[in-house]
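Fold this sequence, please.
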Amino acid sequence: MASNALHLFPSRFSSILRCNLTSSFSINPSKMTRRLAVSTRRTSSMTATGENKSQPLEQERVSLKNFFDQAKDLVTSDVGPPHWFSPLDCGHPLHNSPLLLFLPGIDGTGLGLIMHHQKLGKIFEVLCLHIPPKDRTPFTVKLVERTIRSEHHRSPNRPIYLVGESLGACISLSVASRNPDIDLVLILANPATSFSRSPLQPILPLLQFMANLPNHSLPHVVSSTAGAMADLDKGVGVGAELLLTSFDPSLLLYYATALHNSNLQVLADILPIQTLLWKLEMINSASPYANSRLHAVKAQTLILSSGRDPLLPSQKEGLRLQRLLANCEICTFQDCSHFLFLEDAFDLVTVIKQVGVYRRSKERDFVSDYIPPSPSELRTLRDNNRWVILSQPRWWINIMSPVMLSTLADGTIVRGFAGIPSEGPVLHLWEQKGIHLRGIAHPMMFMKLKQGNLVELPFSDYFRLMGAVPVSGKNFFKLLSTKSHILLYPGGIREALHRKGEAYMLFWPERSEFVRMAARFGAKIVPFGTVGEDDFFDILLDYEDQMKIPFLKKYIDALSDEVGKLRTTVDGEVGNQDVYFPGILPKYPGRFYYFFGKTIETDGRKQELRDRQKAQELYLQVKSEVENCIAYLQEKRESDPYRSLVSRLLFQARHGFTSEVPAFDLD
């Protein structure tokens, strides 16, 4: 849990040149009022050096009203069989972006991702499938198959993403099972593979009966169904209630509660009762077909399950699919309803980045495939993790009052970030100057095992979102070569999970692991030390204690084997990379102190530092500087009159909670 690290900064920055959209073709331009286009190829963006590069993704707010506006345009100009269209809202993607095909649910409009078009369009080539209401093409598997085979032939090394919602998820699974040789990534929202267990099953015969009545518009059917269900037994009544409440952001809620709503006719045009029955028949056949072929699905799969889906048992179905599919993980959204993609609180691009399923080639590249967090994602990150001091809203930072020190070029120690190249750490660095630190982390932060002792670590999604990469020489080289700002912990997990009495001790390898590579790219090295963990908790059970307890020893050995051991060729304590979780006792909160030492330049020393002896001397100098940072903080905090939380609160009660709490005097 120690935080003694190095920051490595590039010597210069590359500019970003974005290309403009060259052309598009509209559908029935005399009638279109929103941004839709047929499938086209668009130019891509790249850096001046030809590298994949991205800006943080931010989008204008899109509401459900946009869904109805564009659906009206589509229905008005509806002709022909199912076809693909590319929303103009998507803009133009990054260089060599993967293709994303959206397969809609029961509505068939293809507009289910409308709230995500702008952000998706910057990292994917997006095509959406539109199925006209009067079309009766069964299942559409062959249509999707032809598309992915054509795209695979055109770009065999590029993955194809199939994003399916309910019925579209069944189609995605079926296509994947029939094409195991194509690199597919499936993102499935509330798959309808559980349709046989849907609470709506009891009312399906009633819908079929209502469809034969003279007035058989969908609003009339739903309204009549609601009245009829009130007189039936409890089980069927529950089904009617589910029918009326399941479409929280869309469709049936409007029929039940807003029969005079201007969107009513649009909904009736999208899903005439005969079309609804046809779609239900499709699901009824698609669900068992997809279930019978799950064993053949080898594609990487992400299941998105809603916790409040009254149409389908989505949570249980997600867990079932996770067990049956070869390469599957699941994310559950407890407060979301059936139409997950239309929920205001749901952000598909953020989920893709957090889970780590975005890639541009057969294998994921943690460096070049990384998409920086958007300002809204950073705000959400802060709000969801208020106890992480460096990522907090201003009021929380004011209460905890961490002390930030840095060193100017002349050796003067100052409060704040003035001495750090390009300013500031972690989130504040990004918000103020657009510079972002990429942490090098233990591989277990990226592991997701279905079975075994390793559970997904808290906040691992956030580490991935912020650009952490698994520790390796290859990833370190790539980060340096792309002029990234790197957060490096040479002590690794042995230093982080230290034993009793080892607080603030460094466990670095004897020989340099990073100096010569840093010098190759002229990186700046900033020694960095943190003090304060011992003011927040004491270690009760450390590694030595737990290894004396048989069942804990067995657990540690099994866990370490699962995640893999690093530095196995290194002798001594540095090579002891066993993974364990110390037992801790919280204490009354103290204060954290951060000290960035004087920047060490390597620019212009490439030839000099090729000599192993010279590199070793610089390595020892860096280590000594980190130790000096820690020792300085340990000594100076003893004279800090506001080290305790109570003293800080009293100070702010007198001077205001927005006031900066003083610390010790700087030499």
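Residues 5-10+372-655 form one domain. Residues 169 and 565 are 38 Å apart (CA to CA).
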